[in-house]
Amino acid sequence: MAETPPAFLLVTARVNDPVRMGAYAKALAASGLYERHGGQYLFIGKAAVALEDWDPGTSIVCARFPGRAAAEAFWADSQYQQDIKPLRIGAAEVHVAIFEGL
To answer: What is this structure's pTM?
Structure first.
């Protein structure tokens, strides 16, 4: 039986309202949603060195989940979608994707 590959949730954001994004980040951290779905942050921040065609104002969040189903469950969680995600709407240009690992 093949082992389920881990999944990585990658978020890039160009923040235009730091106060609202701060409220979003605080609510997300307090919710325990990442942990509830088996997720853990791998890194959060801006590029230490921009090597090629990288906007220095872009922030990144990368989280590891035990598998794609867990990452998708986190994203679809009603607490996230209804209570937390709306806090960041309009506060940043955000791009989100899930990648499967090896």
So the answer is: 0.89
